[in-house]
Design goal:
The complex is a heteropentamer, with one copy of chain A (290 residues), one copy of chain B (414 residues), two copies of chain C (333 residues) and one copy of chain D (276 residues). Chain A is mostly helical and 290 residues long. Chain A is built from 13 helices and two strands, in the order H-E-E-H-H-H-H-H-H-H-H-H-H-H-H. Chain A has a single domain, classed as MetI-like fold, CATH 1.10.3720. The radius of gyration of chain A is 24 Å and the shape is flat. In chain A, 57% of the residues are buried. Chain B is α/β, with parallel strands linked by helices and 414 residues long. In chain B, the strands form two sheets. In chain B, strands 1, 2, 3, 6, 7, 8, 9 and 10 form an eight-stranded mixed beta sheet that branches. In chain B, strands 4-5 form a two-stranded antiparallel ribbon. The longest helix of chain B is centred in the C-terminal third of the chain and has 18 residues. Chain C is of the alpha+beta class and 333 residues long. Helix content of chain C is 27%, strand content 32%. Chain C is globular and about 75 Å long. The chains are: A mainly alpha (290), B alpha/beta (414), C alpha+beta (333), D mainly alpha (276). Chains in contact: A-B, A-C, A-D, A-E, B-D, C-E, D-E. The interface between A and D is large, with 106 and 97 residues. The complex binds adenosine-5'-triphosphate (ATP) (2 copies) and magnesium ion (2 copies). One adenosine-5'-triphosphate binds next to strand 2 and helix 1 of chain C. Chain A: Belongs to the binding-protein-dependent transport system permease family. Chain A: One of its GO terms (cellular component) is plasma membrane.
């Protein structure tokens, strides 16, 4: 189907989306770039002045920047590892013939539909509260001191909450992928004398690679900008323990009202995100194509 | 008909007001009210963005004593010049009134005001044989906390704010700093975290709360501590005076009849050892409904409103800390055993002279400059890291010094 | 080394009686083909032998030993799946080597065995490719390669050619036949393709609804089908069945005449008929004709026949090629 | 592989799986349960599981404080509205990319996805200023536009992969049958891609429903959805866990139910058609 | 009403010259079959005629009018796709009616036309079903139904039978032939199946690499191929090509003998050979033999031949069936 007429209509039809997306990205981005070269505090309107790259210098030399960069990577990386491994294990489990599999599945995927804010509120208050929370009570049952989650393991706590939210997503996709594994292949491996463990590593895992790629791609997109969980629970602390790039930009924009600094931070974040994107696209270009 | 959009914080008094607005709308049938209730940080970020960009989304904003002077200075707030004849401006407490005025004109009307004080458990004090005469010092407080601390039985010596934030842990730590003779900035706007005063204050803070406080102190703010205290887990609690009405309310508090009050501790000085804060209602410049908004504000901050609350919910629940007359009202004094202490605390707080050494800024537990929110929060985080044991006190202080210095320099103060 | 014996083998899925009971003897080195209509249980039978399904009842003996409780890999059989079931993420080499790896063979042994299998199957140049980059025929050879390296007692093939196009099928058919001649290993081969069954088998097993209808050499089944089912199933185009007086004259209920055993004449003959469609294939001609008495019939004539639609012709069955059936469909002497 | 599952294996697998499943679900269960407790019971230790006074007072109070249905209605309008607008754009775009690809198509797709990686707070001020100038603050229309633009890349991706699965033949057949382009899309493409479109819509409804930054920062009251509703509960004074739980339950209930009903569809949607 | 003429039609995809230039005349009412190896441009040619692709150069005339700039629907042609391309979400009725609806016909006209097409194609009972609930053959008839209601000037078929199993193919082949006999509309039919080409065509067009190798009646191509390519391509099994002295004796570079034109004898003959594999199909026997002089050869003998591997035999070409080729592969008178 490639007549001149149809190629032209193709261009015309894809244009609206590309144009609106471009505007949606370019106009704010353009303004942001412009702002990033200004001394611009929202609370002092009318005093904007051109200060060159000073905002970038401040943002990049801010000790918080490297801490938050490390936290971002740690957060994204840990959640990816937990959800992928957990997703595979749970997927394998739910792939077995078990009693009430349908209902069980609904239970397992439920966290995915929960608003991040609600997720954070529930975990922070009902579960992780070191005095009246569920975990504290469980610890006391076992005669252990209550873990003070947001003090002693702040980033871990965030990772747990975010993982809880995204694990079902991984399960959902990996389970489907598991179910699409050709039975013949498993049987052929059986005939070849492979046990369950060998089958898993030699047959199942490679089969899942594409699904894992999808999980990694989509989760990364959303995990890079995790915000609500941090905002509601630790507010980025203690210290900088849970400040990620998104939160750091937030503190600039909405605590200091330093629009210039926040803009510079936003641009830096965009650049970082694009580096991650290029890396991912390399990865996916291979895995998604066939 | 006029629709007023009102942004409020989600605390108990404000929510109570929402419920009572029928009284207002029946008097003013041509005005309808639209409430936007948000958690404190979100509220602040929403209204600040809106007023600074002249978004014009709100007719009335609930703002703190931190914002009022800054915004009034910038001309963002409409002066409240038409509150009605029987509003009785002079009945407002002087400290509070000063905090919301510029050049003698009112730019926001205080809804309730607070200072800080210490709440403690009579029964536990008695058991430990402690008597309170006069104002405590922090060193004495530390001793008491040691004695009371009994985590095995679910009692922690002291509860204090630990959650990072300029309005959370920094509110308390600033007053502690003041008590130890520290200040946020010297006359040249240089931060002073490298001085010995801050070191002493922060040492005390991390020591007392870290060793004799509840677990999870770094995520405890006002609400968390309130829960703890109400469920009988704190021996002492130094926090906002408004807490008094909650901790003495038997419906919410297990220890309602065991609570006593005293002033917040001093150290080398008592100046600035207790903070001053009020939630106020203000009208952004550019609101289309200034007249109706003033009507509403007048209603919500009037003496009549206090009586309305009293008639519906009892005197103990009226919004405290704004009007002198309330503290002269025998019915209130009877219902509110904490009234005297509250009045004392508020009266003794002075936003201008709150530090031992001179300072260039206004505010007891904050500095009323636009950059302060960011600075306060960053410093608050560094201090909470010290509390969590992630860094030492020295590290936290030098980090605070460095980051504040950066911000001030960037903002062009020097 | 590869004699397989089924004794009263039964298989039910839930309540579905897929194999009601099969007895079968397969000799060492024999090439046995299972044929039968779709759903008759061919694959099931194969999978029972392979050990991929448990028998519900009965015994499966390999070289005299009951293997009912052996894991598939332990039975010493190799299976080539219809889909080939190659491991898509492994190279050809690793596909072939997988079974050896699982058996814990050393690197050298594996390499040697894979290389020699690849040589037999002409795969040496493709060892580093993934299955995705192979043609259908090459894939099939990999599947076979995977099977032969393990030196199985017998090969099991489940319709291995059904995914290939016609030209490739012919080639692969010849290759498998050649392989069997070289290796002399027992092979069990499932197909529903006439030509494959006829040309490859030492012995054909005709199945219907999980029951063995007839077992025998291809030409025996062709010339002496035990019943109407086998008669109709073996041979293409299908045998013509004629009842009525003609059958009665032969002393039976129905006679069967294969299309190639009808002599065509334009002048005279036993059955007058009209040509509906004549298909000229060059080397032969298929006539689809209509007879008043017997309805639609098919004729297969050698060479070119100058006939076309609506021509009147006469057909005469070759006398010694007539099959006779009784009312139950059983062949009569 | 399923052939040798013993009854014992079945039972132990089932038991184990249920334990894990219930653990994962526990926070939600606990939230719902707490919403029926009184405030004091909500914080009591040891926690009570069943033996407490079940009460609806938290729900009553939440409803008294803020009109849940107004927020919920806004959530529905925003989620559905942005999805529908998105669909119009995404369908045409995905059609073009799937059936008239150019050399740039792959790049365009990946570029679209990369627009999603920018932290929204970085562009809050520009957007807020634009919204103010165009009078879009606190309007459903404005938010629908934002949500639509946010989710457009994902919609295009998903639809693209579905359309890829549709044989070109069928569209060509329609063309031979004389269908014009709009008719080809409306009568042939859309009905055939219906399952894919449904899953795309569902996922977008969920994403729009849970979007908490723009919906909070660009609304005040008229257009405020449930994310704004919940923002007023995160820490009021006094004991609030039970009320918080009630509000949370109300905020997530609709989407949880929708999610459950549509989970089969969603899988297809989420995987970009990657898992067959 | 359906004469199609291609003049110097050229098609390139990017730099790939798929059709370097084709001239072809198709008469009204003719059944033309395009054959050729995979990738030779059969589908492309068909799609050019249909208007689904633009020609790079040259003219396509339908009934004398150049249609280069007409949209597909305007050319008055109907296409039956290999996959049938039925609309899965519409009933059979709506599938057939879709084109009429698009043309804005009234309800009554549509109903009438669909009903009559359904009658011709025996689809009346299935009109309310969806394609998913139809068998392969029924689907194909729906695809044809969709084509015929529009009263096209010509039908274009792109390998319409290649998805069907062997038995169904035979049936559908006969149905399409019957349809052509009834409608007498021009049909262009792409296939790579020998039998279809031979049996259905009025005229076969043999393509190779986008070039027309020969155009002619099936039996003419079979008996008088213009060159070695056509000779080898038409007829199955493939023609044997023999060079060397035997060819020289016939005064040419190479001779071609079809497998069915080799006489087999166990005693004497022109070419001594060894049987490698003998395939007994009942009605005939394929012998894959090896000759010292000519290498591998195929023989197709009628009936059963009692031969098997390693038997020595002698082959003699039938003299009047020998094809002679020069060094360029062109046939010699
Ligand atoms: N796991 C199973 N559960 C239930 N029924 C099954 C199962 N496997 C096969 N069957 C049924 O058993 C019967 C025989 O199936 P089988 O696959 O052996 O047929 P087949 O002869 O191989 O057919 P085909 O030629 O179509 O491959 C069929 O009716 C099928 O539906
Ligand atoms: N859109 C296209 N872009 C580039 N090359 C193409 C395109 N369509 C077809 N080709 C190439 O043109 C040549 C002819 O393709 P065509 O589909 O016409 O072959 P065919 O004769 O129909 O083969 P088959 O019998 O396998 O269907 C092939 O080499 C093919 O790769
Ligand atoms: Mg089968
Ligand atoms: Mg083709």
């Amino acid at each position: 189907m490639s007549t001149r007429a149809s190629t032209l209509t193709g261009r015309i039809m894809s244009a609206p989306s590309i144009i609106v997306l471009f505007l949606w990205m370019a106009v704010p981005l353009g303004m942001t770039i412009y702002f990033s070269f200004l001394r611009y505090n929202l609370l002092s309107p009318g005093t904007e002045e051109w200060i060159g790259t000073l905002n970038y210098e401040f943002f990049l030399t801010d000790p918080a920047f490297f801490a938050s960069l490390a936290n971002t990577l740690l957060l994204v990386g840990s959640v990816l590892v937990i959800t992928v491994i957990g997703g595979i294990l749970l997927g394998l489990l739910l792939d077995q013939p078990i009693f009430g599999r349908g209902i069980l599945r609904l239970l397992v995927i439920a966290p995915f539909f929960i608003m991040p804010t609600v997720n954070a509120l529930v975990w922070k208050n009902l579960l992780m509260d070191p005095v009246s929370g569920m975990f504290a009570w469980l610890a006391s049952l076992l005669g252990l001191p209550a873990i003070d989650w947001f003090t002693n393991a702040p980033l871990t706590s965030i990772i747990i909450m975010v993982s809880w939210q995204w694990l079902p997503f991984a399960v959902l996709i990996l389970l489907t992928a598991l179910q699409s594994l050709d039975r013949d292949q498993k049987e052929a491996a059986q005939m070849d004398g492979a046990g369950p463990v060998s089958i898993f590593f030699y047959i199942t895992l490679p089969h899942l690679s594409r699904a894992i790629t999808v999980v990694v791609l989509i989760e990364t997109i959303f995990l890079l900008t995790v915000f609500a969980e941090i905002f509601v629970t630790t507010g980025g602390g203690p210290g900088l323990a849970t400040t990620n790039i998104a939160f750091l930009v937030y503190t600039q924009a909405l605590l200091q009202y330093d629009v210039g600094g926040a803009s510079a931070g936003g641009i830096v974040a965009v650049i970082l995100a694009n580096i991650v994107a290029i890396f991912l696209i390399r990865l996916i270009g291979k895995n998604l194509d066939n | 008909e006029t629709k007023l959009t009102i942004a409020t914080v989600n605390n108990g008094d404000m929510i109570r007001m929402q419920k009572l607005t029928d009284d207002f709308t029946s008097q003013n049938p041509d005005i309808s009210l639209e409430w936007v209730t948000l958690e404190e940080n979100t509220l602040r970020q929403r209204v600040t963005t809106d007023i600074a960009t002249k978004g014009g989304q709100y007719d009335i904003m609930t703002i703190g004593t931190y914002e009022v002077p800054i915004w009034a200075e910038k001309g963002w707030l409409a002066p409240l010049d038409n509150l009605g004849t029987d509003y009785d401006v002079d009945d407002l407490m002087p400290a509070i009134r000063a905090a919301v005025s510029k050049d003698d004109a009112l730019y926001a009307a205080p809804f309730y005001g607070e200072s800080s004080m210490m709440m403690y458990r009579k029964d536990l004090f008695e058991k430990a044989g402690i008597e309170v005469n006069g104002r405590l010092t922090w060193d004495q407080t530390l001793d008491i906390a040691k004695k009371l601390h009994d985590p095995d039985n679910g009692v922690y010596g002291i509860c204090l704010r630990g959650k990072a934030g300029w309005g959370e842990n920094m509110a308390l730590i600033s007053t502690m700093g003041n008590a130890y003779g520290a200040r946020w900035f010297d006359e040249e706007w240089n931060p002073t975290f490298d001085g010995p005063e801050w070191k002493a204050a922060l040492d005390m803070y991390t020591n007392i709360l870290g060793n004799y406080g509840p677990p999870g102190a770094t995520s405890n703010g006002f609400n968390e501590n309130l829960s703890l205290f109400n469920s009988g887990k704190c021996g002492m609690w130094i926090d906002a005076t408004v807490a008094a009405s909650f901790v003495t309310n038997p419906k919410e508090s297990k220890v309602a009849d065991q609570v006593a009050f005293t002033e917040a501790p001093c150290a080398v000085t008592c100046t600035g050892a207790n903070w001053l804060w009020a939630w106020n209602l203000g009208i952004p410049m550019g609101s289309q409904n200034v007249e109706a908004a003033q009507k509403f504000i007048a209603w919500a901050t009037s003496k009549e409103y206090l009586e309305l609350v009293a008639s519906k919910e009892g005197w103990a629940n009226v919004p405290p800390g704004t009007r002198i007359s309330l503290y002269e009202n025998p019915k209130y004094l009877e219902a509110a055993p904490f009234a005297d202490e509250t009045l004392l605390a508020i009266d003794s707080a002075d936003p201008i002279n709150s530090t031992l050494k001179p300072k260039p800024y206004v505010g007891v537990q904050f500095a009323a400059i636009p950059e302060f929110q960011g600075i306060g929060t960053t410093v608050g985080q560094q201090f909470s890291a010290a509390l969590a044991g992630q860094s030492t006190v020295e590290e936290a202080l030098s980090a605070a010094q460095a980051s504040t210095d950066r911000t001030m320099r960037k903002a062009g103060y020097y | 080394m590869g004699a397989i014996r089924l004794e009263k083998v039964k298989k039910t899925f839930g309540t579905l009686d897929v194999i009601p009971g099969v007895d079968l003897d397969i000799n060492d080195g024999e090439f046995v083909v299972f044929v039968g209509p779709s759903g008759c249980g061919k694959s099931t039978l194969l999978r029972l032998i392979a050990g991929l399904e448990d028998v519900t009842d009965g015994k499966i003996m390999i070289d005299g030993i009951d293997v009912a409780n052996e894991a598939p890999a332990k039975r010493g059989l190799s299976m080539v799946f219809q889909s080939y079931a190659l491991y898509p993420h492994m190279t050809v080499f690793n596909n072939i080597a997988f079974g050896l790896k699982m058996a814990g063979e050393s690197k050298e042994v594996i390499n040697e065995k894979v290389q020699s299998a690849a040589k037999i199957l002409n795969l040496t140049d493709y060892l580093e490719r993934r299955p995705g980059a192979l043609s259908g025929g090459q894939r099939q050879r990999v599947a076979i390669g995977r099977a032969i390296v393990r030196n199985p007692a017998a090969f099991l093939f489940d319709e291995p050619l059904s995914n290939l196009d016609a030209a490739l099928r012919v080639n692969m058919r010849l290759e498998i036949t050649g392989l069997h001649q070289d290796l002399k290993t027992t092979m069990i081969y499932v197909t529903h393709d006439q030509v494959e069954a006829m040309t490859m088998a030492d012995k054909i097993v005709v199945l219907q609804a999980g029951r063995v209808e007839q077992v025998g050499k291809p030409m025996d089944l062709y010339s002496k089908p035990a019943n109407k089912f086998v008669a109709g199933f073996i041979g293409s185009p299908k045998m013509n069945f004629l009842g009525g007086e003609l059958a009665a004259k032969h002393g039976c209920h129905e006679i069967g005449v294969r299309p190639e055993h009808l002599v065509v004449s334009t002048e005279s003959g036993v059955i007058p008929a009209t040509v509906k469609i004549a298909e000229h294939l060059g080397a032969e001609t298929y006539l689809h004709v209509q007879s008043d008495e017997f309805g639609a019939m098919t004729v297969r004539a050698t060479g070119e026949m100058p006939l076309s639609g609506n021509d009147k012709i006469f057909l005469t069955p070759e006398q010694d090629r007539i099959h006779r059936f009784d009312a139950h469909g059983l062949a009569l002497g | 592989m399923e052939k040798k599952q013993t009854p014992l294996g079945y039972i132990s697998f089932s038991a184990f799986a249920w334990v894990v499943g219930l653990l994962i679900f526990f926070p939600i269960f606990w939230m719902v349960l707490t919403s029926f407790k009184s405030e004091l019971e909500a914080v009591s230790i040891p926690p009570s599981f069943i033996s407490f006074d079940w009460t609806l007072e938290n729900y009553v109070e939440v409803q008294e404080r803020s009109n849940y249905f107004k927020f919920a209605m806004n959530s529905v309008i925003l989620a559905v509205g942005s999805t529908l607008v998105g669909l119009v754009f995404a369908v045409t775009c995905a059609w073009a990319m799937a059936f008239n690809p150019t050399k740039r198509t792959k790049d365009a797709l990946l570029w679209m996805l990369s627009t999603k990686m920018m932290p929204p707070v970085g562009v809050l001020v520009p957007i807020y200023l634009m919204f103010r100038d165009w009078g879009l603050l606190d309007t459903r229309f404005g938010l629908i536009m934002v949500l639509f633009l946010m989710n457009l890349p994902i919609m295009v991706w998903m639809l693209y992969t579905y359309f890829k699965e549709i044989p070109t033949d069928i569209l060509e057949a329609a063309r031979m049958d004389g269908a014009t382009l709009p008719k080809e899309i409306i009568f042939v493409l859309l009905p055939m891609a219906l399952p894919g479109i449904a899953s795309t819509m569902l996922l977008n409804v969920i994403l729009a429903w849970n979007e908490a930054f723009w919906t909070l920062n660009l609304t005040t009251s008229d257009a405020a959805p449930l994310t704004a509703f919940i923002a007023s509960y995160s820490s009021p004074e006094g004991l609030f866990w039970a009320k918080l739980s009630a509000a949370s339950t109300l905020a997530v209930a609709p989407i949880l139910v929708i999610g459950w009903f549509s989970q089969k569809q969603l899988v297809r949607g989420l995987t970009f058609g990657a898992v067959k």
